[in-house]
Each structure stands twice: as structure tokens, then as C-alpha cells.
Amino acid sequence: MSYIQRLKRTGIVCLFPVVSYGILGPLEIYCGNEKDFSFGLTDFIWLFLGISVAVWLFSSLIFALFKDKINEKICAVILGIGVASYIQNMFMNIKLSEIDGSGMDWESLKSFSYLNIVIWGIIILLTIILSIALKKKWSACAMGIASFLSVIQLVAVVFLLISSVTRTEDTSNLRMSGEGQFEVAADHNIIVLVLDTLGNTQLENALKVYPDMLDGLSDFTFYNNADCRYYCTFPSMTHMLTGNDFDFDSNSIQWLNDSWQSDKANKFYDILGNNQYTCSLYSSSSVIYTYGDIDNLYKKFNNVKPADVIIDKRKMLESMGKMSIYKYFPYIMKPYFEILTHQFNDIVTLKEGESIIGDNAKFYEALNEKKLTVNSKLQNAFIIQHLFGTHQPYTNDENANFVEEATIEETIRGLIVICEEYLSQLKELGVYDDATVIITADHGSWYGNDPQPILFVKKAGETQEQMKVNSAPVSLGDFQATILSLIGEDYSEYGTSIFDWKEGDERARTVYMRGNDENYPAVTNSSFNVYYEYSYVKDKDELLEKMKAGPDNVLMATPW
């Protein structure tokens, strides 16, 4: 066989895995999770296409240099890897990521990982055996299989590209800026520290390790019977900040947009503005996923404004490439290519101003370096700082410093250290006494049977020697009414304030915990397909019993 003949065979066989890993894989990941990325399709697809073509040409030219017998075996192995990867992606990826953005529990999948790699070995071995058994027919067979599967994948590529470009894209240059993230107002501040995922049970467990952990929050009241109504960040944050219940009959993006553009939401932020409050929202989670179109936040939050961005293409390519390999590789190799959502936060930064800092340790470092300052132009401020909280991986220690790996108890202690430092700097600036500070989470932890989020509140002018504990049945659904009550405004249109509820009150509350249920159909462009509904009237213990017994109702999640 001549070099040209070997090059033809090698080129066709090599094309198959190159299309999988270099083109279809990244494209599927992007199109299936477009709401989670802060960069556009055209920012990466041409780079991947160019790299894929280069890899394809290089590998084909090099492998074709080997003589016939060796080249046959190389092509057999490449085809075997391609077929195994294709089958892996289509049939053997039983679970690729946790629904809350946490890392996989690889230990629980150890037995499946061994079976998975055995299947890979059998597939590759079969292609080698076929290359020997078929002899002269092997070349045509290999090219036929590779061509057929390559065409199938390329058709999928074309379909994804067409569906992506026909979707309406946000061409606005509005961005959520981190400029002013460490500034407070001269007079009255309402500061909300959202420690993502931190629930009451997690807090109780951390207190067993660090019993004096909450001593620095003596001026606060700890509401230990609060619920979040919705798990996870979507739709909880938008529900909390707009007061609108989730619509299970609506498209998810449509609900987000309708909620933020509603009269209820507009009036709430108008009232704050009329009381000379400048509103700022610092959230490193995906804007489109958490809040809908960025236009929804414009003119409500002062730090949402036009800005140009810089895309770190090396990080973007590295992250998207690892995710593609993660899709196609066997389970025993997946841990080395696992990418979590927060690792995309540094890919896009603002050309002017500053990017938002949401990572726990980075926020603490910046807080100590930059220090809080008083912006004399701000009379009053409503500030929401949304931190990474107790999402996995745990990468801050008990002193809030960055570490490669920490326990959840160390992470929680570190989060309280961050809060204490923030409070200390407010005191140094002389604005602590007149500030209202709320420390909460947008939701608890589903996997830890910890559905109730933490909620600590210090009113302006409130001081006490020891933290109070209040078991009143409150909810994050009371958030807007609570804020309006704190500034002395009528909140009757917004429900009840947390201050309207007393210990011993019984209150009918409903919590919706989202998840994946194999008994229900998948939902378009969503990593989860159901919401489990639980209703209760007393406290966390009753809610946990309800969760053990099974949901009162199961509702289908809405498509994006």
C-alpha cells in the first residue's frame, strides 16, 4: 500500500474521533448549557474548528508514515477509541454531574467505572482482531465505519449550529460590574450576604467543631426555622429579589424575564430609589441562568451597565476541551477532566472597572487588601453580595484562606470569618450601628438533607450582648416585605415580613426541591426534570419527615 493510500485510510479513521472530541463535543456542551456561559458561540467554535483541523491533518500525516501492518494496527486502535467514545457518550454516561454544580461522588461509581473500562477494552480489542481477521477487507471496513459515524456527527454539528444561530441572542453590552463591590453608603446601608447552599444542619455540624464560631454575631437574631421555598439558585434568587412565585407552566427564561419586569418588582426597586437607596447586586453566578436577560437588572442595580469584556481564550479552550474529553472518556478517567461551573468565572473579565469576586477565599483576600470604603456620593445603599458558600469543592480553610481541599466544617467557619471581617470593617468606618445586615443563603443543601437556609438579621441600631435565636416560621419569600418594613414603607402588597411571625406560630409553607427523576421525561436544555413539592406547618423536623416519606406532589420542570 502506498503512502497516499495509507494517508487516505488514516485520514478517514482519524477524522471520526477528531469530530467527536474537537467539534461536536464542545458544541453540544455549549448549546446544551448556553445560559451558563458568559461568552458567545463564535468566541470559541472557530478556534476549536481550526485546532481540530490541525490535529486531524498532523495525526493523519504522521500515522500514515508507518508501514502497512503497523498502520493497520494504529488505525484499528484509533477506530476502537472512536467507537468506544461514541458509545460512551450515547449510552454509558449514566451521570455526568450533580444537579447543584457540585463535584461527582466518584467513589460511589467505582464498580461501574471498572465495568466501563472493561467494555472499552473489549471494543478496542475487537477492532484489532477484526483488522487481523478481515485482512485486505479491513481497510474498506474501517473507512466505512469511520465515515458513517463521522457523517452522523457532522449532521448533528450542522443542526446544532443552525439551531444556535436562529435563537435570539442578546447583543447588549450590559454587564454586571464588580466596580464598587467594597463600597458602602455614608448613612444607611442594608447589606445582604448570601452564602450559597449553607443550611441550618450544616451550620449545626460546624458548631460542634467550632462551638464559639458565632460569637462575633452577638448583635444578630438567628432565625432557625426559615425556608427557601425553591432549591437551587435558580429560581430561588429571582423569587427572593422579585417576590414572584415560580410558574411551572412557563418557559424558564420567560418566567425570569416576566418576574423582573413585573409591576411588583419594578415598584419594589422604585420604592428603594425614592428612599435614596442605591441598589447593587454582586453575583458571580451566571446572569442568564439566575436572573434572565441582563436587561432585567438594568436600572434596578447600579452596577449593571454597559461594558466591554476580555475573554481569556486559553482558559476558555482549556475548560471547554476538558469538558469534551469528560463527555467521551471512560469513568475511570473522568475525575481528571472534571470541570465545575465556578471554574468558568475567570474566563470573562471586564475591560473597564472590575469583575465580580464571588469565590470565598478571593473575596476575603480582596476584602483585606482593598478594605471597605465609604462612597460619599451614596446616601443609602442596598447591597447584595452573593458568595460561593458551601458549594463543592471546598477550597477555603477555617481562616477563610485558599486551600486545595477543606472540610465542609472548615469552609463554614471560614465563611463566618469573612462575615466577621466585613462587620469589623463596617465598625471601623463608623457605619455599622446604622446598618442592617442580613446573612443568609439562597437555599439549603438537598444532598445533605438540609433544606432550610441560614438566616441571621441585625437591624439598624440593634445591639445586644448575646445572639438571639428565633424559631418563628419565616421564609425567603418574606424578603421584599422585610426590606420595606426596615425602611418604614408599607409592604402590604408584598406579603408578610419576617418580623410579623412569632415563635410558636404555625404557618403553611411549601418547599420545592428540584431533581432528576428517571420516572419522568427529560426536559429540554435542563439538567433536571422535576420539582418535588413538600408542604409543612411547623419546623425543619417536620419538613425532613415529609422528605423521608416522599413528596406531596411532583411537578415537571420547565424547559429553557
Protein described:
The protein is of the alpha/beta class and 560 residues long. It has 15 helices and 19 strands. The longest helix is centred in the first third of the chain and has 30 residues, at 3-32. The two termini are 53 Å apart.
* Proportion of strand residues: 5-15%
What does the overall shape look like?
elongated
Mean residue pLDDT: 92
Instruction: State the low-pLDDT regions, or none.
Output: none
The span between the termini is 53 Å
Number of helices: 15
- Please outline the major beta sheet: 7 strands, mixed
User: How many β-strand stretches?
Assistant: 19
Relative helix content: 40-55%
- Protein structure class: alpha/beta
Largest sheet, spatial ordering of strands: 7-12-3-13-14-4-15
